[in-house]
Amino acid sequence: MNQEELLQKDKELISEGLKLRFHPITVKEAKGCYITDTNDQRYLDLTAGWAVANVGYGRESIAKVIHDQYVKLSFTTQLSAPSETMIQLADKLVEIVPGNFEKKVWFGHSGSDANDLISKFLPVSTGRNKMISFIGSYHGQTMGASSLSGHSAQAKFEGKGNVVKIPYPNVYRPFSGISDNLTEQTMHFLEEVFATICPAEDTAGVIIEAIQSDGGIVLPPEQFLKELREICDRHGIYLIVDEVKVGMGRTGKWFSFEHTGIIPDAVVLGKSLGAGLPISAVVGRKEILDTVAAGHMFTTSGNPISTSAAIENIRIIKEENLIENADKQGNLFLTGLHKLKEKYECIGDVRGKGLSIGVEIVTDRDSKKPDAIKTAALCYHCYEIGLLIYNVGIYGNVLEITPPLSITTDEVNEALSFLDQAFQDIENGNFQLEKLKEYAGWG
Q1: Which family does it belong to (predicted)?
Q2: Minimal CA–CA distance to 109: which of 357, 279, 322, 283?
Q3: Where would you tag: which of 63, 113, 349, 396 has the fewest CB atoms within 10 A of its CB?
Q4: How far apart are CA 252 and CA 220, in angstroms?
Q5: Using one digit for the tens of pLDDT, what is the confidence trace for 217-240?
Q6: Per-residue pLDDT averaged across 142-161, rounded?
Q7: Measured between alpha carbons, how far is 439 from 19 in angstroms, rounded to an integer?
Q8: Cα 254 to Cα 327: distance, rounded to the nearest angstrom
Q9: How many domains does the chain have?
């Protein structure tokens, strides 16, 4: 089938609940940082499939590992008959996740089921029934993970009633309207929450993204996570960091929280861990992960295929210095994007760390009014000229740049050239908005 036929079948057969579409594309193949559609059109990809393909597409060594593992041992349920690859991967994760305390590892399939474990286990582990998370957070789609989330895309669904959500310290859009002393403002807000609706002695844990990803690539003030760690320690509350989207080297370190020097009590991983295969993990304190025997089980968790791919994925990241490349190419991207900001008034803010970068689109810089329509138009028009990019944010107005960590300098410059052209065309009115009817992304 050609692309048009596939899209029609997709419309007929696939649930709308499984769709978040930005372009009329169906994919045939991918290699490195490029995707080819079913009409043989090639695109430079700045999405890495929602930050999944950190090592790029079509890695032959990973394909060989998957093939060899399947031939040797295609499956055993790790719940009852563990295999070597799960233990090997757990050993590597315990090694790279900071923390001088006894750690254990739990495996699942996605960031959602991993954050679900946090939702279930922390209240039981501590004997405290409350959890705190942040407005703008996106922890997943299952009930526990969705309940922890604070994203506008999940606002229509009911959740567990034990979660209190507080403002995330967004310097560009401060919850109080005042950017000064934003860390102090947020800590004061948290203490008020402790004093009223969520007593500290009843609070099991705080879960946070060190960089809010689907919330709009929001970086907190420099000292914020240290202050949050201190307040959690003062009240005997666990601090959990969700690294599902920005972990595994994306920010120029293995994990984004490492830029702040804090040590979480548990770290949640997913997306890029399996280089395209479904696998997630929680790496944390033994007393958390041993809370309930047989308490959060999935038959195919930690399966030999996914764990062997994850082991090879970690090897590639280390041996090809992809963490260092993420830092280098991220700085190049940010420099180029700041130059585009000088050129185009609709760019309200440029921010990021490594290759987790956000470009916030506004109607004008004075009002900072989010412009979700222009953002969707930019995504669609980038596709038309050969670049794939998605939008994120609670207002749907942030272009998200999360390419494979293997991206080269030439490819970064190519991407910046595409973006420059897209901004120029959209600003000049060279785009028909009716194209967005089915492809507005989060909008």
Answers
A1: Belongs to the class-III pyridoxal-phosphate-dependent aminotransferase family.
A2: 279
A3: 63
A4: 17
A5: 999 999 999 999 999 999 999 999
A6: 87
A7: 10
A8: 11
A9: 2
Cα 125 to Cα 128, 130, 209, 244: the distances in Å are 8, 12, 22, 23
Mean pLDDT over residues 191-210, rounded?
98
| Residue 160 confidence (pLDDT) | 87
Q: Which of 277, 312, 356 is nearest to 107 (CA)?
A: 277
Which residue range(s) make up the domain with 347? 3-55+321-438
- Are 190 and 167 a contacting pair, CB within 8 Å? no
**For the chain, what is the largest distance between any 2 Cα atoms, rounded to a whole number of angstroms?**
62
pLDDT reported for residue 443: 63
Report the 10 Å Cβ neighbour count for 58: 14
Closest alpha carbon to 332 in 258, 414, 418 = 414
End-of-domain residue from the set 287, 319, 351: 319
Is residue 138 among the annotated active site residues?
A: yes
Torsion of CA 235, 237, 239, 240, to 10 degrees: -160
Residue 153 confidence class, pLDDT cut points 50, 70, 90? confident
Helix (H) or strand (E) holding 376: helix 372-385
Q: How confident is the model at residue 435 (pLDDT cuts 50, 70, 90)?
A: very high
Q: Are residues 309 and 195 in the same domain?
A: yes
Encoded tokens for 79: 């719940």
CATH number at residue 38: 3.90.1150.10
Q: Which residues pair with 383 in a beta bridge?
A: none
β-pair type (103-108, 42-45): unpaired
Query: Do 26 and 7 form a contact (C-beta atoms < 8 A)?
Result: yes
Q: Is residue 75 domain-shared with residue 40, that is, in the same domain?
A: no
| CATH code (residue 199) | 3.40.640.10
List the structure tokens of 75.
């499956």
Coarse DSSP helix, strand, coil percentages of the chain, rounded to the nearest 5 percent: 40, 15, 40
- Compute CA 292 distance to the chain's CA centroid, rounded to the nearest angstrom: 28
163-166 β-sheet, strand order: 103-108, 280-285, 266-269, 238-242, 203-208, 130-134, 163-166
pLDDT in tens, 363-379: 999 999 999 999 999 99
Residue finishing a domain among 270, 301, 319: 319
Q: pLDDT tens digits, residue range 305-341?
A: 999 999 999 999 999 999 999 999 999 999 999 999 9
pTM of the model: 0.97
Q: Which of 34, 43, 57, 138 is catalytic?
A: 138
**Is residue 443 situated within a structural domain?**
no
